[in-house]
What we know:
The complex is a heterodimer. By secondary structure, chain A is mostly helical. Chain A is built from eleven helices and no strands. Chain A has two domains: about 60 residues, no CATH class; about 150 residues, MetI-like (MetI-like fold). Chain B has a single domain, classed as MetI-like (MetI-like fold). Chains A and B meet through helix 1, helix 3, helix 4, helix 5 and helix 6 of A and helix 1, helix 2, helix 4, helix 5 and helix 6 of B.
Amino acid sequence: MFRHSQIKIGHLYLALFLLYLLLPLGVMGGASLNDSRFPTVYPWMGLTDKWFIALWNDSRMWGALRNSVVVAIGVVLLAVPTGTAAAFVISSMSGTARTILYGALIAPVLAPGAVIGISTLLFWAKLSVPPGLHLSVLGQVSYIASLVMLLVLARLRSLDASLEEAAIDLGASHAQVLRYIVFPHLAPALTASAAVAFFQSMENFNITLFTRGTSSSDTLTVYVFSMVRGGVTPSINALALIIVSVTLLVTTTFALLRQSSKRP
Amino acid sequence: MLIILPNIALIESSFRPYLPLNEIDGPRDSYTLANYQRFLSTPVGFDIFGMSIDVPIHLRIFITTVLYSIFVTAIILIIGYPAAYYMTKTISPSNMAIFFIVLTVPMWVSEILRSFAWFTILSFKGPLNALLIEIGVINSEVRWIRGYYGIIIGLVYTYMLFMVFPLYSSMQSLDKNQIEAAQDLGASWWRTHWRVIVPHCKPGIVSGCVMVFMLSAGSLLVPSLLGSPNSLWFTQTIQQLMLEALDWNTGAAYSLLFLSLCTFVVVAMMWAFKVKLSDITN
């Protein structure tokens, strides 16, 4: 077994590592509660909620939030079916064709977001489609669908092929096999990929920046970005604190749900 | 089985493939084509692209971006490797679930907030300066967001977990007995890692490095927030061309250049370490 001292070092290192990961987020969030003109926590000037009120009254933020949600829903609606379909196709193929198609399909995941954004913009500009949020959706779908494909593919691998055969032997049509065997099996992967697609879309910046068009259609990340660049106030920290809390809540619930579903 | 599977595949592919190909490959494929056309047919794009070699300012940015991305990847590997190692070895499975939730929080919080967190900390009137003055380490505020320091700090923080997770998942499959056997046979700490653990985790290490390198080189947020005008990232150059100068031809040519760099890195890494593409994306 491991020596005791080694375990101690391990725990110490991990504690420092966690601190390193979490402290910046804490500082960022804490700065929103500080009654200071600058976003900082150290010279503590007392608790305040004025930055939250300022944020609440910022109509541009609300527009950006609405845009983000609309784009994210669009991405989920497009990316999940597309990615699932791609996963079906990939899993039904074999050999060189599979390798090539697989490479082509996951390339968008590895390609830099800025390049995807530009390519989307150029492609649709050729077809004289003006830039805007609809292009942001399309651009984001191109790589989020690949993520969905990877998730579904992993789940598809664990599907017992003999189940399908049994169903077909018992006289089920292909549609029935899909409906009663394949999709129930994929359900967890589909839910997870919808969640991933939604969050990936919400936080996407690179693609959105290039494809969004006019400045009136900014999403939440683009809004934060422009605020930070041009005179930052702690109300951005307030927004950050809210997002961090929501994230924490969602990941915890998700993890708890998964744990409880594991233990029947 | 040989009949049914292709049948299902046929049903599937009969009505589906045009959709993914249209959606997924459409923008990218035509992107390459459109670029080449612009690149070759319009002299504007070609001239300015040629200029990037004559006037090496953009080439210099390109090279510094690559070098700093490699640097960032190395730092992340050095910090992330022990973290992943200790995660597998010293945390009990029951605690692991909680640990994982805490660990994934920074990853789910978007990239912009992660870099904004450091923007807050490093800013001129920020907590770090105030704290250091109070302790007496420095006398007056230091401008941290200057040169490439801010970018490196930000990138290391932002993409740390993209290294730790692949490392962790590859280390998990390593049999503890192998490490113990190596130690029992008298291998030093260093030798155990180098000869037993690293070879086993090679796919994890390679995929982590590729991910981090691509993300850092392709990052636009971190350099824009934590960089300064004298520390341009190549993506910023592209962004300026596209959105400020509205020179789409050059922007396209540059992004093509950038994309080929990325492809080259992935292929080179895969070839050098004999790792398959499916390992990287897992």
